[in-house]
Predict the structure.
Amino acid sequence: MDVGRSFTYMLKQPGGIGKLILGGILMLIPIVGWALVGGYALRTLRSVADGNDTLPEWTDWGDLFVKGLLAWVVSFVFDIPGLVLSRLGTPGSFLSTLWSIVVLIVLPAALIRFATRDNFGAAFEFGAIIDFIKANSSNYILAVILGVVASIIAGFGVILLVIGVIFTIFWSAMVWSHLMGSVYRASNAPVGMTAPRA
């Protein structure tokens, strides 16, 4: 897995800067823009997972919007236990923090399954999700950590007169998509089929 490629992925190919600018502009549009960006991130993940290392086009906007909304639903469902626990006082806050760590580790695999199978329900097949993480643990954990690093780097966009953060956040989403797509591709599981079990 070429982690360096993930960080330079969208900046080193024809049209990459234009797609970055469009993605950043969409980040300024609440809900609709965010959903489109989320859908594009999933499309990018699937493309990389399928062995295509070029950025997908901004096409079929309806599909991007729906997929982005569904990805938000997946994330929200995973967050529900933490939200409930956080209302239970100090012990609940501690447990909520622990749950946030679980979500940080497990949610990317759920989104990988959703993207590669084009199946919303696949994001909640918890046995298969855990099997995928275990079977690809080294690459997967590295990708999760580097995804967090990319998000931290994206925060420095604030330095670029605040507006720059919309572009760095979109860049970090593309880094995350390439990392997770690369993990799936390294697992040798064809897109749309069951990943190898541990």
Q: What stands out?
A: Residues 3-186 form one domain. The helical segments are 3-8, 16-26, 32-49, 61-85, 89-117, 126-135, 137-154, 164-186. The mean pLDDT is 88.
